[in-house]
Every structure is written in C-alpha cells, then in structure tokens.
Amino acid sequence: MSELTGKVALITGAGQGVGQGIALALAERGVKIAVTGRTLSKLEKTCELIAARGGEALPLVCDVKAADALAHCVAQVVERFGGIQILVNNAQEVCLGSLEQLSDETLEAGWQSGPMATFRLMKLCYPHLKGDGCIVNLASSAAKRWDMAGYGGYAAVKEAIRSLSRAAACEWGQEGIRTNVILPHAESPGLAWWMKKNPEEAQAFLDGIPQRRVGQCEQDIGRFVVQLCSDGSRYVNGQSIGLDGGQALLG
Predict the structure, then answer these.
(1) How far, in Å, CA of 55 to CA of 237, rounded?
(2) Residue 85: which CATH number?
C-alpha cells in the first residue's frame, strides 16, 4: 500500500495531456482523483482509464476562469471524498503572439485561467490542505527562452504563478502545506500542435534539450509529481523545478 493511498487530489485540466498524466500517476498510488476540465467526454475518458487500474475518480466540468465554478467544484470534491490533500493547478489558456498582435482579450484569458485560477483555488482549498497538504502549480520555462519574441504574454502569466506559489510556500509552510512549481516539457496535445505548426522552431527546441526528447506525461511528469507529494519530499517547499530534460537554467 502506498503512503498516498486514500488521499484526495483535485487536478485542473486533467482531461488530457499533462493533467491526465498526473492524474493517472497519482491514481496508480491509491489517490482518489477529482478530474476537472471543460469537456465532459475528455474527463470521463480519464476517469475510465483510472477505473481500469482499480482507482477512483470523479469527473467535474469546471471553467477555471469563473470564480463561482471553482467554489462549486471544491465543494463537490469535499462532499464526495471528504477533503482535499493535493491540489494541482494545471489548466491554462495559452496566450501566444507578439506584443503588438496580442489582444487584451487573449491576455486576459491567459491571466484568468492561469494566475487568477491558481490564486482562487489555493485559497479555496487552503482550509482542507492544512496539516499535510501539497500544492503543485504548473509554470513554464518560457521566461527563460533565448528569444522571448512571441512569448511575452504566456511567460508573464506563468511567472505570476511562480510568484504566487512562492508566497503560499512562505505563508502556509508552518501550517503543514507545501507549495511547489513544476515547469514541464511534455508530449501534450498543445505541444504537439505547436511543433506541427512551427517545425523549424520545434527542431531547434528539441536540439536545445540535452536529453533530445520531450517528456512523457505520465512517466516523466506524473511520476515526479507523485514523488513531490510523497513523504520523501516533505522538506521541499517553495521551489520551481524544471522537468525539461535539462533545457532551462533556472536562476
């Protein structure tokens, strides 16, 4: 039996990609999973995969940009499972484009789905996380790119998540809540779309990864999150950790 058996995780954007990989990896260790996202069919697919491994999952349609929807989601999770010990803020609308081209609406969507959703969910889950809670927020190494052209908006919202996470780690650490950030490269539908649309840049991107490959959602990202939520990482708090095969130099 895993030390995580019986714990409850709320994971946003878990219908596919990295969120799904994290959900599957945690479920493999006995964690009950609240699978949230915008598309019910995708959420149900993740739940089916978890059930096939003997796990328990609850699909919850939720627009992370809506404060009321987030509050309702947390209430449903607590009602079904009795609490929340792990929060993974993964959902994010990507706001790419040059500063001149980037619209207010696109940047606002990135802000609301990223930093604001992360901020709101951390506060909503805070009472339930006290004692042995673990928050894992997702950011990006976009702000560490050699060329920031076209990535300013996306990098800005992801850096805001890092700042909020550091504050949570400092403010809530004494209450038994650990907050960390991962910056992953993974074989998600979003990355696959980007690589297909930008083949030359994608090749340069791959060439810049010392391991010369993109990570796998469950095996490389999900399993690391399992470690981060386990007792072996109980003194890891307030850190930003690159899961990118060694590409970014975080300073």
Answers:
(1) 28
(2) 3.40.50.720
- Domain with 116, as residue range(s), is 8-186+215-243
The sign of the dihedral angle between the CA atoms of 146, 152, 38, 238 is positive
206 domain residue, yes or no: no
Q: How far is it, in rounded angstroms, from Cα 210 to Cα 230?
A: 28
- Check: CB of residue 115 under 8 Å from CB of residue 106: no
Q: Specify if 47 maps to a domain.
A: yes
| Tokens matching residue 189 | 């539908």
User: Is residue 154 annotated as a catalytic residue, yes or no?
Assistant: yes
- Residue with structure tokens 């799904």? 20
Q: How far apart are CA 223 and CA 22, in angstroms?
A: 7
Residue 198 lies in a domain: no
Tell me the per-residue pLDDT of 64-81, one tens digit each, with 9 for 90 and over: 999 999 999 999 999 999
Check: CB of residue 148 under 8 Å from CB of residue 206.
no
Instruction: Read off the amino acid at residue 122.
Output: M
Q: Say if 197 falls within a structural domain.
A: no
pLDDT of residue 201: 84
Is the four-CA dihedral 150, 192, 65, 184 of positive or negative sign? negative
Query: What pLDDT, in 10s, does the model give residues 89-123?
Result: 999 999 999 999 999 999 999 999 999 999 999 99
The pLDDT assigned to 192 comes to 83
Two tokens at 45? 């697919």
